[in-house]
Amino acid sequence: MGEAQGFAYAQRADGSVVITHHGRVAGTLRGGRAAEFLAEVDGDPQLVMARWTGNYRRGNERAARQHPRNRA
After folding, report:
1. pLDDT on residue 1
2. Tens of pLDDT, residues 28-53
3. Partner of 34 for a Cys bridge, out of 5, 6, 17, 56, CB 3.0 to 4.6 A?
4. What pTM, to 2 d.p., does this model score?
5. How far apart, in Å, are the Cα atoms of 42 and each of 2, 13, 61, 67?
């Protein structure tokens, strides 16, 4: 299973955190969410940033939803 790559984050002076993916803003966290993110990012930062931005899905969700087993 491949790891997420290309994520970076910057903490601003006002306490907010900006997460970028390949140089483009992927999300901005403020207040308690920013503090929670900073406490969690120590482990595997790429995976944590992918999860916090929602970029851990890879595009096969639509095909899976249409599979006969997953239809209602």
Report:
1. 39
2. 999 999 999 999 998 788 888 888 88
3. 17
4. 0.69
5. 20, 20, 30, 38
